[in-house]
Amino acid sequence: MNNEINTSVLIIDDEEIVRDNIEDILVPDSGSKGQEIINDAVNVLFDVPKPLLTTRTPSIPVFTVDKASNGMEGVKRVIKALEAGHPYAVIFLDMRMPGWNGLETAIEIRKYDIKVEIIFITAYSDRSIDEIVEQAGQNVGYHCKPYAPEEIIQLATKAVTDYNKLRNLENLIESISSIGLNKNQLTSLLKNILEQLASSVDTDMALIGKLHDDFTYEKILSIGAVEEKVNLGELIARVKNANVGKDEVIQLDELILARMDKYSFFAILKKQERLKTEKMYLLKLFVQNAAQAIRNAELNDKLLQKEKLSAVGQVIGMVMHDLRSPIKKIKVLNEMMREDEDGGDNPLIDMIDKSAEQASEILDDFMDFINNIPVEKTPLNLSEMVGEAVKLSQGSREDTTYAIIKLDIPADLMVPGDESKLRRTISNLVNNAMDVLRGKKDGEINISANVIDNKAVLNISDNGTGIPPEIINTLFDPFVTKSKSTGTGLGLAIVKQYVNAHGGNITVKNNNGAVFTISLPL
Questions:
Q1: Residue 436 and residue 18: Cα distance in Å, rounded?
Q2: Which of 221, 436, 466, 511 is deepest in the core (most CB within 10 A)?
């Protein structure tokens, strides 16, 4: 047997003979003749059998035993063991004792140790199991006198085994928040732990994810057929109706709910019975540490993205620096062509001029993004600026897009801002909407604005397929793109940087399509 497991047992009973008898059963001795005579007397007087003196099998732990003659002494021993860092794994507790009875003692013990396995050993049935569980918690057992030695050994072995399995799981759970893992590695580890935890609470269906303030649910991982067999909408409604707090674990019939901050755990038990206090504690611990580990992984991924962006930014910066000069020379060459009699009336020159200006603006914007250049604000007419951005988007497209663009912006709404950057921001969002609506016969883009709380609030919505759920929460992160062959994953990151540089904010949600909302201070 592994010597590192906790096999420490405390016996609390007011009868010394019973205390010694249980100790002899758990810690067998070769025994003297005098001890055998005493054991025989105990058997006759108290209906307590003589200890087994047979050879122990390797599956039976090597127990260590402490004893207490009353409840108060027992609680003191529990506190002392905890302070020494060597808590008891199991406590055998008599029900009828002078002073604190067994139930009162158990309640006091639980104030200090919710993990220890408590087993009531009593000859009296004046307390029902329901009453004991209600007051002392689920983490208790119950066995009647007289008992056979093998029964005590089985009870102690099972209790010690359960205790140590849960401690190992607890240590594993506590370690996950301190391990530096990326999201894929963490998901694999969390699933493994979730499967062990589900096994310990007797369920094969469990789910963990983010429960947002509006009670929308974002799944992180699950085991079993919970999504196929359980209506997730009804599950969330039960959480809402039960008013589960943000740092709480509750049981509703066969449903276990644990909620920590924005993270929640659901499990459907195989049997509709109360879970032990210890297991409810482990569920809470799991969600707490899983939430912290997920946050750590998200921060780690963002750090890697920043490092990646920094490296790519240096390369892009050098390339764009070299491109800037030849692109800006295009306008000079066009002026020379206009002065030439043969090329002065060629309409293509104006188109080349316009394209060169757009390319130059894009280069300047990317360089500003890489160098995080502050914006230069001037008073802008929002309606006119958005109109120009829409024309820019429509004029730059070679494909046929059926989207109808509707504008509803007050003609006199003025905002302080950098015209080039805000125009690029709107144009980028409109281009993305057009990409989504390409080929859609009834495609429609609505751009509206109003003033709320001294802010200009601009909404850009489309009736496309919406943002895929797996990227909606990271949409503005660099290099996030999906189903867009020409996408770099930088477009919306630039948009967010420009909006933030204006002291504003940008959000996205799905509502019969994608809805982007930009707020700019007035």
A1: 79
A2: 436
